[in-house]
Amino acid sequence: MTSELNSAHQTVWRYRTTRQEWTRYALWFAGTLLFVWCFQVMTAQTIWAFVSDAPRQAVDISSRMMPPDWASTSDLLWPLWETLNIATLGTLLGVVIATPVAFLAARNTTPSQWLTRPAALLITVASRSINSLIWALLLVAIMGPGPLAGIFAIALRSIGFIGKLLYEAIEEVHDAPIQAIRSTGAGSAQTLVWAITPQVAPTLAGITVFRWDINIRESAVLGLVGAGGIGMKLESALNTLAWPKVSMILIAILATVAISEWISAVVRKKLI
């Protein structure tokens, strides 16, 4: 009899308590309500007739794009060259500005933890917070349309990317070469040049090539807002509904990006 009572009062093991189960259900319910509310907000101005017709429109436009306008290839060579120049010059300008910013942001090289480091970090965050297309919109309004606005847009966007990766690399340099240089009586500037810079130089080269690869893709669309490059040709073709030319431009952009990615991979493999 006693053993039966003891077994009746034994606690049955459960993965979660009743309270935890109800809390879990409540969280799922709240999450579902939040999802439904967000979906309603995002689709409040959606015209569902267009959405339902989208597959038919996609097939129709795709058929209009074929065959690509191969005869326009010669007209795309100069815009492609301009796009490469925008990406390359923008990347180089970004490196020139980002390198001192990175040294000011790194804990082990900054002159002041309370003044220059926060200022340098603010520059990198501000640069990364704004997309290159928005930078291009602002610069086209300030400087007027053309490749120069595109170069500065790419540079301003690159500063944050290069600066962040570079200052993290600077903070991770080995201390032994620094101590060896200092033991010779070298000052801060000499330590920076002969102990820290040689350690981060390969990393900077790799980051630069990687960013150049990204910038080629980004500079291809800057022309949509008037910042030069092949994007201006694409906008013109879209406005005139020249679909075969649009497909040719997309093929040219795809080929350029593929080649730049291959070059980037080869160079980074040699450097790192």
Search tags:
272 residues; flat; 11 helices; 0% strand; mainly alpha; MetI-like fold
Textual characterization of the structure:
There is one protein chain. By secondary structure, the chain is mainly alpha-helical. It has 2 domains: 14-50; 72-271, MetI-like fold (Orthogonal Bundle). The chain is built from 11 helices and no strands. The chain is flat. It starts with a helix and ends with a helix.
Tell me briefly what this model is:
The chain has 272 residues and is mainly alpha-helical. The chain has helices at 2-8, 18-42, 48-65, 73-105, 116-129, 132-143, 147-171, 175-183, 188-222, 230-239, 243-271.
Mean pLDDT: 86
Q: Strand percentage, roughly?
A: under 5%
Amino- and carboxy-terminal Cα gap:
77 Å
What top-tier CATH class of the largest domain fits best?
Mainly Alpha
In the CATH hierarchy, what is the architecture of the largest domain at level 2? Answer: Orthogonal Bundle
> The biggest beta sheet, please?
none
**CATH fold descriptor of the largest domain:** MetI-like fold
Full CATH superfamily name of the largest domain: MetI-like
Give the uncertain stretches in residue-range form: none
Number of H/I helices? 11
Helix content: over 70%
The topology string of helices and strands comes to: HHHHHHHHHHH
Tally of separate domains = 2
Number of strands: 0
Instruction: Report the principal-axis shape.
Output: flat
Instruction: Compute the CA-based radius of gyration.
Output: 28 Å
Structural class: mainly alpha
